[in-house]
Please model this.
Amino acid sequence: MSRWISPPVAFAVAAIVMWWIGRSVEFGRYSFGYQAPVGIALIVLGLGIVAASIRLFVVAGTTPSPMQPKKATQLVTSGAYALSRNPMYVGDAVMLAGIAVWIGSVLNVVLIAAFVWFIDRFQIAAEEAALAEIFGDRYVTYRGKVRRWI
Model:
């Protein structure tokens, strides 16, 4: 699969723009008690979801690379993959939500939505086509039982 921007790069761009908005734009700012700990907790939760998801790929002996889904040798459907077909991207979105909370700008919700839209439209669609080609009916059945996000 040839993509012009990989999911980790899309995540990094969103996070950097969130930071820039937090430092440069006054409109939409907010603060509340325990804001930093709540933001950090969400970041840690998202990181845990991503790490656990990657671990399932490693244990299955298949590639977790979002840029090379055609190299998949196993269809992972257990753990977080029993709840979401894309828990790594869910984890990324949770981390971005944590960054948004920690920074304290409501405008950053737009960046989370843009990240989710980009991943859903360009990355996941291509991954799903590759997985359907590799795993056939097994993937189609899995796709019918488990939601794309949550």
User: Anything to note?
Assistant: The longest helix spans residues 108-135. DSSP finds five helices and no strands in the chain. The chain has a mean pLDDT of 94. The chain has one domain: 7-64+71-145.
